[in-house]
TrEMBL record:
Pfam families per the UniProt record, alphabetical: Transgly_assoc
Membrane topology reported for the UniProt record: Multi-pass membrane protein
Protein name, as recorded: Membrane protein
PANTHER family on file: UPF0410 PROTEIN YMGE
Sequence intervals crossing the membrane: 6-23, 30-53, 59-80
Keyword Membrane: yes
Keyword Ribonucleoprotein on entry: no
Major place of residence: membrane
Keywords noted in UniProt: Cell membrane, Membrane, Transmembrane, Transmembrane helix
Localisation: Cell membrane
Family: Belongs to the UPF0410 family.
UniProt GO cellular component terms: plasma membrane
Amino acid sequence: MNGVGIIMSIILGGLAGWIAEKIMKANVGLLTNIILGIVGALFLNFILGLLGVYTNPNWLTQLIVAIVGACILIFLWRAIRGRA
């Protein structure tokens, strides 16, 4: 996550993963929520960077990016497994 430390990345990742879990009606555990949130933020920040869009490095912007990224990852996982 851009502009936040390791501890804040874990906290934001867990929160973002939990929110994405509720939005997408997925049933995953705490560790998976943290991983989904962090990887989702990294994934979407990377994609936005390729498009020339750079996010503001504050916690609220990164939380929103992480939530959207985690939702995209859940959607892609379901699409690959055939349950979209």
